[in-house]
Each structure stands twice: as structure tokens, then as C-alpha cells.
């Protein structure tokens, strides 16, 4: 059937089962936006108009992370496209599948520095799995199909499709094609033919699996580190839990692995690395076999790669060959999808008993340090935990509150913790929370943030209000850029250069100005009251918690030093 | 980084012949902090496929990373590190030399003959030589011609193939190739 490029875009989204798009219109993408009205696509695809393209990018990302589906984000050319860049990089670093669809100026004016023209495919080349500039309407459908296939497959990640405006107005033949047929068409088919001898997902190597099983047999003190790969791999978490319970070794987590192992599980040691628990970091240093699944040994985990797990044989399980030996030299690796590798391991893994080693590891478990007369972030998170029965989706921004949320909230399923782990994007949380709530309307979604982060993208409060997306924002308001201040306290002799945020706005009034509810809390009881009211109201709420300026994240290991060298205990 | 273990590696890369692929490959090197010594690109016998020959100086660990990262790119079909002792490498160099008198011209032509370089252009005041070889031969000629005055010099960049039957399509290590396919698998 002949149809315009703009309509082909919509039909291709429907092929993929897309029913939610976050975005912001503009001059070049007008034809696509017109389809919502002209051909009534707004009945099938719900578009959320955000306050800023960055908010839309994080919302699509949060939607993808919390649902496991591919997120979709629209923006126009030029500044619309560049406003996505931080969001694209955030998705890229955390392997989140998002398709970003932008339009560029028409082909006759491209390359002439036209109004709102920018080479967005050039700009996003290093932060996308793949990107496209579509100049031929006959290729449009195949490019979109390929983009979605790439975004969700293998190690997932963002894809950007830039379409010149005239293509959205030109006509081409379009026939519906089910997703299962997409690899047989167009460029995707050519690419698969050239790159693969076999189109099926290769199996993990059985010899590699057996070698790991043998290493486990020899080990007296094994330790497991679970990363975001287990969260992204569909169906991997149940396999992982079977694996860890059969093995019975201590399990640490990276920030992206939050939810793979239940936070209150007796084998769980907490995070490993810069803000890892003492239990985790000491176990990492003392173990004789370190099994890392779906992680990439970033500098926040392996703070000093040369001494990381130095007494151990390191085994790395990952889907991406390029991660092996990138940061930490490993002794053995298994390449494959986490679910499949764990399945194969579970088939043969006998039950183990490391009770002595475990007792040794967990003997270091301390209690949460809590100054008596101070409102502590721990109390906030514990209250949220209790009042949501640990079932809430938590979206965070970046900094101290992010670490507190990861340390004190017990995540129990994948997609429950939404945080910018790799890129560390301040301002990620509110958009991500919005996307998560849209994708999971039956879950409570809590946005944990700091006063610095919240100020960056709080404009999305108007989106929450307009679409009645009841996200509860909890601000850990210490009137400073807490994490940077913490570094200044510990490393820069308390020279607090440009980190004090002794300024407005009044966040309660701000929430009210956006038509939402605002609460203040200065102690545990006030917070519990406010949070209960927020839950009951079922609307967007902001709870401004007054936190002392000098509370730090414990423990802390300095950058570039071994994970056992605690700056703060 | 310990530069003592640095050595020259030659990579042969088959890529999709389309816009942006060369910049994708070259930007990968710059953003990962690897220095390209030489890069040559052109189409192959299949018009849809280009072949890039890249020379890079780095250590063993880095070259593995480079290959891993290259293979992750969707437009890259295959990557092969050419073994130095069983590969032929060649580069074309054009050199324009000042030669304003008959004596000088004769002398330059003699040198060219010794090096099996060809004279591809003559004017009343210049000679242009073309030489194909590896860098040691090219460099030796260049040094000799310096005294006459080199006006211009251009290199194509090194191109290379393996000797004998071996080709880039051979899968020396099937397991490793499978591993990469998994990394970018799209099904």
C-alpha cells in the first residue's frame, strides 16, 4: 500500500507493539506528529509531551528499563536532537534499549548549516549501538525494523534514526511485516548474511561451562558478583537465584545488578566497590574464585584493577566479547546470554557448603551508623521500604541519595531499581520515574533525588501533573551537592568550592505551583506521615526531607585504590 | 602503559561500503586512544564491501581490545590481524624532486633505477618518482633524494595481504568468531 513516510513510521511502531512514545515536536518532525491527528494514531500510540527533550529521553529509558520493552523517544532536528544526547549516553552506558527517532532538515538544504540543522548521527556515533540517516523513503521501514532489532538484541542499547524531513512527506509502498520476518528483509538481511554463518544465537561453549564447574570444585572461598547483564537478560534472574542458592557463596552486586539477588537475602553482601559494603569488599579481596556475571568491572567497582580480587581466579561471564579483559585481567571467561549460561551451569552444579567461609565473610556485617539526634537517610528509605512492602520501583538521580537508596532499599526483582550507573547522569530520575510509572501503572514509583539533581530537570513535574502520572518524589535535601562535598571533605581539606546550594526554590511551593502536592519532613514521623498521604493521594507529590549537610555515604574507597582501602568505614 | 612492548600490528578489516563507515572505524581508534600509523581503504572485488588496512603501534593487550571493539561495529564484517612473518605489505609513494639540470636528472634516474622506482613525470625542473615497497625501502630512497630537494611527497598508506592460500574469510578460531557474533547478534 502506498503511504507517506510519516505514516510508515507510525505503522512500523505498531509492528513493534509500541503503544507509548515520549517526545517533543518541532519544525522538521511535524509530518510525523501530524499522523497522531491526521490518521488517528493517537488512539493506538499514546504520546507524552514532556517539558524538555532530555526529560523525554530519560522517560523512554526508564520505560525500557522497567518494562523490558524497547523505549521510544521523538525529537525534532537541531537543538531537539542535541537535547537528547545526555539521555542517549545514559542509555548507552547502562545498555538500555531505546530507539530515538529524530528528523533532520530536508535533503535539499542538508549540509548548508540550515536553521535547526545538526549532524546528530555524527554526534551520537560513539553513544549509540548503531545510528542511521534515512534519505530514501523506500528504505524507511527496513531501517526502523533494523533499528529496533539492534536495540533489543544481544547486549541491548540505544539506536538513533534520523530522517530527513522530505522523506516523511514522500510516498512509498508499505506492507505490514511481522517482527519475526524482519531479519529476512532489507539491509538487516544483508548484514546478517555477511556477518553470520548461522543466524541463530550461538550457544555458550560447553567446554567453558565445564571449566568453570571444575574451578568451583577446586574453590574453598568463592564469591559471586552480579551485574546489570543479569537484569537485562530476559528470564535470567530466576536462573541466577537457583545458581546462587545451589552454590551458596556470598553474592555481591554492582549498582546495575540491583534486584538480581534479593536485598535481604542471607547470601547478599551488598554492593562491591567505591561505596561497596565492608563485607563485599573484604570478601572480594579474600576469595579464591571470583565469578562475575554480566558486569564490566568499571572503575567504580574495580577501583584498582591490578589488585582487584587479587587472591582469586577471576571468571567473567558476559554477552559482549569486548568486555573480556577490558578493565580487569581474567583467568577464564564464558561468552553468552546470562540466562543461557546460568541454565547450563545449573544443570550440572552440585549443592555446595561454604558455611565456614560464609560465616567468616558475614562476621564483618555491621549495623547502619545512625547519629542519635539526626534525621538520617536510612530512616527515609526504611520507611519507604515498610510502607511499600519493598515493592516500589525506585528511580534515583546521582550522588549520595543514589548510594543510600542502593544501600538501604531492598530490591527484589529486575527493573525495580532505575539509576544511571554508568554515565552518572544528574537529572535522570524524574524522567525515568515518569517512564516507569507509565509502563507499570500498578506499581508505586518513588523518585529519590537530591536537591542538586532535582533542580536540574524538575520541569517534568508539569508533565506528571498533566498526564496524572503519580510519581512520589523524595528529595534528600541537604542544601549541598552532597557527594561532591563528601570528596571535598575527605580529599580537598574541606574547601567547599561551589557546592553549597543555599538557595531556593522552596520545593514544596514549587510542587504546588505545578499543581502537585508538597510536604516537608524533618524527622522519621513527619516523613512517614507525608509518605502515607502521598500514597493515599495517588497524585504526583514532592516530599522535601531536611537532611544534615555533613552526613556522608559510608563506606567509601578512594578512586584508584584497592577496594579494601577504606577512606571512610 | 608500558610502551616497551609496543609493536606494529597490521589489521585488515572488511566493512560495508557505505557512507559513514570509515569515520565510524577511525573515530573508534581516536576515542579509545589508539594511534593509527597508517590507514588505506578501497573497495574489494565485491562492490558492496570495502577493505580497510590499518597499521597501529600498540601492545598485545591493546590490539585485542581494538579487534574486539572493531568486531562490535555493525558495519564491520570481519577483522583479521595479519601475521607479520607471513604477510606481504606494500605502499605506493610518489615523490616530486627538484631536478633543474641534466646532471641532476640523470643522477635521480639512476637512483630510481637502483630502487626499481619508476619515473612517472618529467618537467624542465622536476622529476616525479613512484615507488612501491615496504617502509625500509621507501625510507632509504627518500633519504637519498633529500639532497636534491623533495618538493612534495605522498603515501597511499600500507596495504597488505597474507601469503599463500590464507584469506580474511578464513575462520582461524571458530569459537572466537562465534563469540563476536553473539555480541552483536540481532535475532
Question: What report would you give on this structure?
Answer:
The complex is a heterodimer of chains A (569) and B (187). By secondary structure, chain A is of the alpha/beta class. Chain A has three domains: 194 residues, 3-Layer(aba) Sandwich (Rossmann fold); 157 residues, Rossmann fold (3-Layer(aba) Sandwich); 177 residues, Rossmann fold (3-Layer(aba) Sandwich). In chain A, the strands form five sheets. In chain A, strands 3-2-4-5-7-6 form a six-stranded parallel sheet, with helices on both faces. In chain A, helix 1 crosses helix 2, helix 3 packs across helix 18 and helix 10 crosses helix 14. Chain B is an alpha+beta fold. Chain B starts with 6 loop residues before the first strand and ends with a helix. Chain B has five helices and nine strands. Chain B has two domains: 102 residues, Alpha-Beta Plaits (2-Layer Sandwich); 69 residues, Alpha-Beta Plaits. The chains are: A alpha/beta (569), B alpha+beta (187). At the A-B interface, helix 7 and helix 9 of A face helix 1, helix 2 and helix 5 of B.
Amino acid at each position: 500500500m502506498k503511504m507517506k513516510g510519516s505514516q510508515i513510521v507510525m505503522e512500523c511502531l505498531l509492528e513493534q507493539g509500541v503503544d507509548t512514545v515520549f517526545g517533543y515536536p518541532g519544525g522538521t518532525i511535524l509530518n510525523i506528529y501530524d499522523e497522531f491527528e491526521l490518521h488517528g494514531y493517537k488512539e493506538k500510540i499514546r504520546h507524552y509531551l514532556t517539558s524538555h527533550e532530555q526529560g523525554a529521553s530519560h522517560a523512554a529509558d526508564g520505560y525500557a528499563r522497567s518494562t523490558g520493552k524497547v523505549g521510544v523517544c521523538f525529537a525534532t532536528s537541531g537543538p531537539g536532537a542535541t537535547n537528547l544526547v545526555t539521555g542517549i549516553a545514559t542509555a548507552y552506558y547502562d545498555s538500555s534499549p531505546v530507539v530515538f527517532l529524530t528528523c533532520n532538515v530536508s535533503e535539499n538544504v542538508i549540509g548548508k548549516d540550515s536553521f535547526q540543522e545538526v549532524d546528530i548521527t555524527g554526534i551520537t556515533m560513539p553513544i549509540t549501538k548503531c545510528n542511521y540517516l534515512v534519505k530514501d523513503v523506500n528504505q524507511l521501514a527496513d531501517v526502523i525494523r533494523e533499528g529496533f532489532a539492534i536495540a533489543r538484541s544481544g547486549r541491548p542499547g540505544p539506536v538513533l534514526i534520523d530522517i530527513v524531513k522530505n522523506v516523511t512527506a514522500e510516498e512509498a509502498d508499505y506492507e505490514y511485516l511481522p517482527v519475526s520476518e524482519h531479519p529476512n528483509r532489507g539491509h538487516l538481511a544483508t548484514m546478517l548474511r555477511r556477518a553470520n554463518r548461522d543466524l541463530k544465537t550461538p550457544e555458550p561453549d560447553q567446554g567453558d561451562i565445564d571449566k568453570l564447574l571444575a574451578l568451583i570444585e577446586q574453590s574453598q572461598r568463592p564469591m559471586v558478583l552480579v551485574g546489570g547483564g543479569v537484569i537485562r537478560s530476559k528470564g535470567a534472574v530466576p536462573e541466577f537465584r537457583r545458581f546462587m542458592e545451589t552454590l551458596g557463596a556470598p553474592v555481591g552486586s554492582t549498582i546495575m545488578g540491583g534486584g538480581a539477588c534479593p536485598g535481604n537475602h542471607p547470601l547478599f553482601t551488598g554492593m562491591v566497590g567505591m561505596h561497596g559494603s565492608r563485607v563485599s569488599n573484604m570478601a572480594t579481596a579474600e576469595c579464591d574464585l571470583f565469578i562475575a556475571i554480566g558486569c564490566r568491572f568499571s572503575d567504580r567497582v574495580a577501583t584498582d584493577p591490578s589488585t582487584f580480587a587479587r587472591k582469586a581466579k577471576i571468571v567473567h561471564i558476559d554477552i559482549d566479547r569486548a568486555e573480556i579483559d577490558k578493565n580487569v585481567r581474567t583467568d577464564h571467561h564464558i561468552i553468552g546470554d546470562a540466562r543461557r549460561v546460568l541454565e547450563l551451569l545449573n544443570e550440572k552444579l552440585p549443592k555446595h557448603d561454604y558455611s565456614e567461609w560464609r560465616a567468616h565473610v558475614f562476621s564483618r556485617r555491621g549495623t547502619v551508623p545512625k547519629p542519635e539526634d539526626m534525621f538520617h537517610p536510612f530512616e527515609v528509605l526504611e520507611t519507604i521500604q515498610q510502607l511499600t512492602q519493598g515493592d516500589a520501583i525506585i528511580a534515583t538521580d546521582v550522588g549520595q541519595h543514589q548510594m543510600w537508596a542502593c544501600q538501604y532499599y531492598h530490591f527484589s526483582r529486575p527493573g525495580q531499581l532505575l539509576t544511571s550507573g554508568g554515565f552518572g547522569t544528574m537529572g535522570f530520575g524524574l524522567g525515568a520515574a515518569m517512564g516507569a510509572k507509565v509502563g507499570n501503572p500498578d506499581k508505586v514509583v518513588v523518585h529519590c533525588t537530591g536537591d542538586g539533581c532535582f533542580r536540574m530537570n524538575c520541569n517534568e513535574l508539569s508533565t506528571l501533573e498533566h498526564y496524572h502520572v503519580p510519581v512520589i518524589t523524595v528529595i534528600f535535601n541537604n542544601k549541598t551537592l552532597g557527594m561532591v562535598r563528601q570528596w571535598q571533605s575527605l580529599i580537598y581539606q574541606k574547601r567547599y568550592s561551589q557546592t553549597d546550594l543555599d538557595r531556593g526554590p522552596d520545593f514544596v511551593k514549587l510542587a504546588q505551583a505545578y499543581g502537585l502536592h508538597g510536604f516537608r519532613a524533618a524527622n522519621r514521623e513527619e516523613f512517614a506521615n507525608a509518605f502515607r498521604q502521598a500514597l493515599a493521594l495517588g497524585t504526583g507529590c514532592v516530599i522535601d526531607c531536611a537532611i544534615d549537610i555533613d552526613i556522608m555515604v559510608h563506606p567509601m574507597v578512594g578512586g584508584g585504590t584497592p577496594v579494601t582501602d577504606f577512606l571512610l568505614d | 602503559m608500558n610502551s616497551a612492548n609496543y609493536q606494529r600490528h597490521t589489521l585488515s578489516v572488511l566493512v560495508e561500503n557505505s557512507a559513514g563507515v570509515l569515520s565510524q572505524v577511525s573515530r573508534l581508534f581516536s576515542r579509545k586512544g589508539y594511534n593509527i600509523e597508517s590507514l588505506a581503504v578501497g573497495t574489494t572485488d565485491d562492490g558492496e564491501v570495502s577493505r580497510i588496512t590499518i597499521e597501529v603501534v600498540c601492545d598485545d593487550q591493546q590490539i585485542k581490545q581494538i579487534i574486539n571493539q572493531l568486531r562490535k561495529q555493525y558495519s564491520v564484517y570481519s577483522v583479521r590481524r595479519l601475521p607479520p612473518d607471513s604477510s606481504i605489505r606494500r605502499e605506493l609513494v610518489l615523490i616530486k624532486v627538484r631536478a633543474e639540470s641534466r646532471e641532476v636528472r640523470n643522477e635521480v634516474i639512476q637512483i630510481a633505477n637502483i630502487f626499481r622506482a619508476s619515473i612517472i613525470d618529467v618537467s624542465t625542473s622536476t622529476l616525479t618518482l613512484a615507488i612501491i615497497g615496504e617502509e625500509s625501502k621507501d625510507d632509504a630512497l627518500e633519504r637519498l633524494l633529500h639532497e636534491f630537494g623533495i618538493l612534495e611527497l605522498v603515501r597511499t598508506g600500507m596495504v597488505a595481504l597474507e601469503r599463500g592460500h590464507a584469506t580474511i574469510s578464513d575462520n582461524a578460531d571458530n569459537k572466537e568468531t562465534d563469540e563476536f557474533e553473539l555480541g552483536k547478534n540481532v535475532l
